[in-house]
């Protein structure tokens, strides 16, 4: 039921030390050039921690020693994350808009010291729609490149700043109803001075392309979709650049002018995980817990037309493999050292060969008590990390056998996916930002 929480969205950027969006985008959730510990607590290996006001599940992003983060602060009595139950459950939607004023904010934080360099108010006012109790009004992850920071607040707008915090332009996002009033969460994707944004909702779904420098509209196309919470992925492969959008009706690939290159049906009825690419293949998944269809697809570059086939028929030649029951609901799968690691919402963990789709090991359970998992897994230095909503991070040895090494506890609700630089692991909890070093 938590689909929207994936504040965790995707963009595209130049590889380097910077973690420019959800799951690192081109790093696909992993780094191997870092000197970081695989054990921590609220005090162990903590370079600094700071309080972050308000309530938000957007992920931190980084650029050249700066951390960027968003939040929304309610006037008067603050929202309490503890009001939301942990784990997967039904009945958390709140369709009525709260009678309160909010302030939507952006922070720039020094990575070395944790000191706030600048903070800006993007918007103030009332929220015009309700949301799921586990969602926030700032669940969209920012996008950063060498010139600008792109901040998205669903049903309000996109606000673009330079790295010094000067507002360059803004684009209004008309408020739309979402399924069961869960609220939005998809973030933009940036590539080659263009900003791409997808808003799948219950009224008028669309994909939008804006000029990243000015905010002017290049194009906009309607989508035959209802509410989804997956972010577009810019796939730069050896043949072309594609804008990949996951949806419950179809996965669609657009060229940079908005023309559909190919499409593929067979997804589950709610789609959340972000697509990603690794070693020349594109990976797209969906796995709503109440659906029988929970596919993971691996797709080659150069596809054209409709790739959909019936389960009993041979796959389209552009599809390398499919696992029709393996898809996760919310966490995005991790591709690391030739293996695909899949974290499921209730704490199961499985591994597949990323090139062939062959099962390496089936669903395993972590040692120790777990609640639910919304944050996506990440990896570095031969370790895979899975952060639970309890704030417990289960550390798994990468490889073809399941081996749990540690459990690191922060003792607070966690639903945002961390950021990794070459010297820091940045973790957001309900009230704090940690720098692990």
Your description of this structure?
The protein has strands spanning 30-31, 46-51, 61-63, 66-74, 93-94, 101-110, 116-126, 131-132, 143-144, 148-153, 157-162, 167-172, 189-191, 194-199, 206-211, 217-222, 233-236, 241-245, 251-254, 260-264, 276-278, 281-285, 296-299, 305-306, 319-323, 334-336, 339-343, 348-353, 359-365, 378-380, 383-387, 392-397, 404-409, 419-420, 425-428, 432-436. It has a five-stranded mixed β-sheet with strand order 1-30-31-32-33, with no helix packed on it. By secondary structure, the chain is mainly β. It contains no helices and 36 strands. The model is unreliable at 1-15 (pLDDT under 50).
What characteristics describe this protein?
disordered N terminus, mainly beta
Number of helices: 0
* Total E-strand runs: 36
Percentage beta strand: 35-45%
Unreliable runs: 1-15
Helix content: under 10%
CA distance, first residue to last residue? 34 Å
Radius of gyration: 20 Å
Question: Please, what is the average pLDDT?
Answer: 93
Shape: globular
Report on the biggest sheet.
Answer: 5 strands, mixed
Largest sheet strand order: 1-30-31-32-33
Output the structural class: mainly beta
Itemize the secondary structure elements and their pairings.
Layout: E1 30-31, E2 46-51, E3 61-63, E4 66-74, E5 93-94, E6 101-110, E7 116-126, E8 131-132, E9 143-144, E10 148-153, E11 157-162, E12 167-172, E13 189-191, E14 194-199, E15 206-211, E16 217-222, E17 233-236, E18 241-245, E19 251-254, E20 260-264, E21 276-278, E22 281-285, E23 296-299, E24 305-306, E25 319-323, E26 334-336, E27 339-343, E28 348-353, E29 359-365, E30 378-380, E31 383-387, E32 392-397, E33 404-409, E34 419-420, E35 425-428, E36 432-436
Parallel strand pairs: 1-30, 20-24
Antiparallel strand pairs: 2-36, 3-4, 4-6, 5-8, 6-7, 9-10, 10-11, 11-12, 13-14, 14-15, 15-16, 17-18, 18-19, 19-20, 21-22, 22-23, 23-25, 26-27, 27-28, 28-29, 30-31, 31-32, 32-33, 34-35, 35-36
């Amino acid at each position: 039921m938590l689909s929207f929480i994936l504040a965790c969205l995707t963009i595209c950027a130049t590889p380097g030390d910077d973690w420019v969006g959800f799951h690192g985008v081109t790093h696909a959730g992993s780094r191997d050039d870092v000197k970081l510990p695989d054990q921590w607590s609220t005090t162990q290996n903590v370079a600094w921690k700071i309080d972050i006001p308000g309530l938000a599940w957007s992920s931190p992003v980084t650029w050249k020693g700066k951390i960027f983060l968003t939040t929304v602060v309610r006037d008067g009595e603050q929202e309490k994350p503890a009001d939301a139950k942990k784990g997967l459950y039904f009945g958390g939607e709140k369709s009525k808009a709260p009678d309160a004023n909010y302030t939507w904010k952006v922070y720039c934080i020094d990575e070395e010291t944790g000191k706030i360099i600048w903070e800006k108010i993007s918007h103030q006012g009332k929220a015009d729609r309700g949301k799921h109790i586990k969602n926030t009004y700032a669940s969209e992850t920012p996008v950063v490149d060498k010139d600008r920071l792109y901040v998205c607040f669903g049903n309000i707008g996109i606000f673009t700043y330079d790295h010094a915090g000067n507002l360059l332009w803004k684009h209004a996002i008309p408020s739309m109803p979402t399924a069961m009033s869960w609220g939005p969460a998809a973030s933009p994707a940036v590539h080659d001075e263009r900003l791409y944004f997808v808003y799948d909702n219950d009224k008028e779904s669309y994909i939008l392309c804006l000029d990243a420098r000015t905010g002017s509209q290049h194009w906009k196309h309607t989508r035959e979709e209802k509410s989804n919470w997956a972010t577009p992925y810019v796939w730069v492969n050896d043949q072309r650049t594609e804008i990949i959008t996951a949806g419950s009706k179809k996965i669609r690939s657009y060229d940079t002018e908005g023309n559909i290159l190919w499409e593929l049906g067979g997804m589950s009825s709610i789609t959340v995980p972000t697509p990603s690419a690794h070693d020349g293949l594109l990976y797209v998944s969906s796995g709503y817990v109440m659906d029988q269809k929970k596919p993971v697809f691996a797709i080659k570059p150069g596809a054209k037309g409709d790739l959909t086939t019936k389960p009993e028929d041979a796959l389209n030649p552009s599809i390398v493999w499919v696992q029709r029951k393996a898809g996760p609901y919310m966490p995005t799968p991790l591709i690391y050292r030739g293996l695909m690691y899949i974290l499921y919402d209730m704490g199961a963990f499985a591994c597949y060969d990323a090139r062939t789709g062959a099962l390496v090991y089936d669903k395993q359970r972590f040692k120790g008590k777990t609640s639910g998992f919304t944050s996506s897994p990440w990896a570095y230095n031969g370790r895979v990390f899975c952060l639970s909503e309890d704030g417990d991070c289960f550390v798994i040895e990468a490889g073809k056998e399941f081996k749990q090494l540690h459990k690191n506890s922060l003792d607070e609700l966690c639903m945002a996916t961390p950021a990794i630089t070459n010297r820091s692991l940045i973790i957001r909890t309900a009230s704090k930002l940690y720098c692990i070093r």
